[in-house]
Amino acid sequence: xxxxxxxxxxxxxxxxxxxxxxxxxxxxxxxxxxxxxxxxxxxxxxxxxxxxxxxxxxxxxxxxxxxxxxxxxxxxxxxxxxxxxxxxxxxxxxxxxxxxxxxxxxxxxxxxxxxxxxxxxxxxxxxxxxxxxxxxxxxxxxxxxxxxxxxxxxxxxxxxxxxxxxxxxxxxxxxxxxxxxxxxxxxxxxxxxxxxxxxxxxxxxxxxxxxxxxxxxxxxxxxxxxxxxx
Length: 230
What we know:
It is built from 11 helices and 7 strands. It is α/β, with parallel strands linked by helices. Strand 2 (about 15-20), helix 1 and strand 3 (about 40-45) form a beta-alpha-beta unit. Helix 2 (about 60-70) packs across helix 3. The chain is globular and about 40 Å long. The two termini are about 30 Å apart.
């Protein structure tokens, strides 16, 4: 499936951005202009089941295959968040970016979160008060965008997660130079995963105090953690 995309900037280097579940390209509205100012042509995708992209079968393989079908080969930089990090990891060998960054990747998720993932669909109808209370560090624009992306999201993407996580989705090795940014205040990934990723060839950094959507919780901390990678 060819995905809907949005671009920022006209630089001669390409950066691609892959959002997490319930979001779409709009989630990068503060990150993408920073990259564009650094000389990148930034391409944000809407994953299958999100935003203006099509619907269909949902699996790690289809999400990854859609990225390969849609994005140019050998971008300078690829950044994936959460579910988008899973999709990017599945596509990275074929896309062959010069550098890959995985933000709080949904690879090896705590068991209790997997068991509760089928209930993510209730967030389809979340209101402003609920989003703000769950994400007190977000600004008003991010709350507005979350409401808009939820309206365009297919909750069937959440219903397949328990089957997906019947096995670990952690990559065996870093295929390209790869950075993992962990959110210090997130409870998504299982304890000890950071140390395991280092053994597998990933560089691992933590944005202390940031929740799962670390670039929305602490943009400056997120950008600072990317020092040397963007």
